[in-house]
Amino acid sequence: MSAARVARRYAAALFELYQQGLVDRDELSNAACAAADSVAAPFLASPDFDKGVKAMVVKTAIKMEKETVITRLIDLLSERGKLVLLPEIEQQLAAMIARAESQAEVNVTVATALDEREEAALLDALKRTSGGDVRLHVTQDGSILGGLIVQIGDRKIDASVRSKLDALKQAISN
After folding, report:
1. Residue ranges of the domains in the chain?
2. Which of 42, 45, 48, 164 has its CA at 20 to 30 Å from residue 126's CA atom?
3. Helix (H) or strand (E) holding 138
4. Which ranges of the chain would DSSP assign to H, the alpha helix?
5. What HEC string does 59-95 produce?
């Protein structure tokens, strides 16, 4: 698994904790700076040094004496030999927070027009799912037969009857 994907997983977990008010972004930023330091980075990447010492070096650099989510993250990353990912995790988390705080553009394709109540319910569900404000664009396409297709950024959720029928057709023909 690539370093970016691993960092994204840690950032996603931190993002959930951030939304609950449990993550101090400044603390994470300081830890990421300490890990990216030109002197510290080779030390943290080296397998020749004790993992506990590496964690202690980062915690000392950011002057963390009490246990927090970030100090536990430092311990976990150190134990797994991934302290060098701290800068990437911090960048990924910052991007997730920026996305959540901005308005998401959501394109929805439906077979038949939605009434005001249905559109309001869909908008509410999308806001809860995305965790932020949503700008909804609804288009009508009878060829999907029923259900809907939701596109949020590069994510596409196809819950249309047409896609289910196509999948069934393919399963039967194989």
Report:
1. 3-99, 102-173
2. 164
3. strand 134-140
4. 3-19, 25-36, 40-45, 51-61, 69-79, 86-101, 116-130, 161-173
5. HHHCCCCCCCHHHHHHHHHHHCCCHHHHHHHHHHHHH
Q: What is the C-alpha to C-alpha distance for residues 124 and 84, in angstroms, rounded to an integer?
A: 39
Place of tokens 């830890």: 31
Q: Note whether 114 and 137 are within 8 A (CB).
A: no
Q: Which CATH architecture has domain 3-99?
A: Orthogonal Bundle (1.10)
Q: What pLDDT is attached to residue 53?
A: 86
Tell which residue, 158, 114, 170, 161, has the closest CA to residue 137. Answer: 114
CB neighbour burial string for 127-160, b if at least 16 within 10 angstroms, e if fewer = eeebbeebebebeeeeebeeebbbebeeeeebeb
Instruction: Return per-residue pLDDT of the chain as tens, 174 residues.
Output: 688 899 999 999 999 999 999 998 888 988 888 888 888 888 888 888 888 888 888 888 888 778 889 999 999 999 998 989 999 999 999 888 877 777 778 899 999 999 999 999 999 988 887 777 888 899 999 999 999 999 887 788 999 999 999 999 999 987
Provide φ and ψ at 11, rounded to 5°. Answer: -65, -40
- Alpha carbons within 13 angstroms on the beta-carbon side of residue 115 total 1
